[in-house]
Amino acid sequence: MIKRIHNLDFINLNSSGWGESRFWFWEDLRCKWRFLGNVKNPPLILIHGFGASSAHWRKNADFFVEHGFRVYGIDLIGFGESDQPGSFKYRKLDNYFWSKQLTSFIEEVVQCEKDEKTVLIGNSLGSLVALTTIAFRPDLVAAVIAAPLPDPALMQPISISKSKSKILIRIRNYLVNIFCYLIPLELLVPLIARTRLIKFALQAAYHSSIKDDVELHAIVAQPARRSTAPRALRSMCIGMSVRPLEVTAPDLLQRLTNRNYRSRMLLIWGREDKLVPLFLGKKIAEQYQWIDLLVIENTGHCPHDESPQEFNKHVLNWLELNLGSNG
């Protein structure tokens, strides 16, 4: 069934996983999203990390619905069942691009009531997208939970400063493009996605063993096996490498810090996170003291999925403390 809302096509489909699945068209790109709960309740959006999809919130959505929220999940462009573009028009996929997708999703799909804002909960890359969104559109977002918050820029890498010549920036971007097109992703991505290599890579994001979690393997492997996955990955590599400093995490956090009224933000870190070590979370919380930091023991890079009961409980308590009860 197709129904027209605000000149957008919504295709209702039945699919596995939590909630009701639908597709929404944004800038000629098909985006997968999920919904669960009462439309009269406050909105909460779950944003997945790199390589995952909205299905990765399988252990969280029901909990927040039971505690008074209407819950949405979105597949960012390039992931899950959303389109995986690689044309020149969309060759640069970065956190600002995904933030624009999320902003349009809030305005056109979530459709918050007057003076109503939404809560954003992100995992890894989804956290960076949530941070980008609240930095540029604070009028739409009540609070951000980032679990955890990764960005190479937080490690203070060698980069071209804002004062450098545009010529140097163009040279850097040109070299990045050449390098990314020389990598044979059309061979590497299928090799990883269709062999045990993907299980080894996925295990690095978890502290506990996930060898018997068939559903988790499918959530990550199926999108990677699509024929368009290599070109989408190349778009991400280019986009995240050449993005302007203004959309890196340090600049976004400083943008929020400079405001008279700061949005509420919680960092959640797994103590055993091998991909983004805890010291980075401590560094952020120390530098930006308006941000709260919560550490979950015996947990890796995906605290929402590896320790869902503890994650859900702490998020709900923090939301009630900072935004008031939603029961």
Overview of this structure, please?
- The chain is an alpha/beta fold and 327 residues long.
- The chain has a single domain (2-323), classed as Alpha/Beta hydrolase fold, catalytic domain (Rossmann fold), CATH 3.40.50.
- The chain has twelve helices and ten strands.
- It has helices at residues 61-66, 95-110, 125-136, 166-182, 185-193, 197-203, 214-224, 229-242, 249-257, 278-287, 303-306, 308-323, and strands spanning 2-5, 8-13, 20-26, 29-36, 43-47, 70-74, 118-122, 141-146, 264-270, 292-296.
- A ten-stranded mixed β-sheet has the order 1-2-3-4-6-5-7-8-9-10, sandwiched between helices.
- A hairpin with a 6-residue loop joins strand 2 (8-13) and strand 3 (20-26).
- The longest helix has 17 residues, at 166-182.
- The radius of gyration is 19 Å and the shape is globular.
- The two termini are 33 Å apart.
The strand order across the widest sheet is 1-2-3-4-6-5-7-8-9-10
The level 1 CATH classification is: Alpha Beta
User: What pattern of helices and strands is seen along the backbone?
Assistant: EEEEEHEHEHEHHHHHHEHEHH
Helix content: 40-55%
- In the predicted model, the low-confidence regions spanning at least 5 consecutive residues are 1-14
